[in-house]
Amino acid sequence: MASIVKHRKVNIVVLEQDEPIGEHCKPGDIAISAAADGWWTSFIGEDGAVDSYDIPYPSYLEALWAAKAAAEFGV
Question: For residue range 10-20, what is the model confidence (pLDDT) as tens digits?
Fold first, then answer.
């Protein structure tokens, strides 16, 4: 089940494996999603487009800190 971490007025939506980003995120959100190969950090654009980093993080905490750092810069 998706949960939300709020940081600097940005929603960081934490998704379990196989939860679709489009069902839980809106433009301006950052998604952290679990996958078999790690934790992916994705950004939802104003038009709903999803852009992700090239590789996943090995842990949830690393992905969360990356998302919080991105929120600091107002993504």
Answer: 999 999 998 99
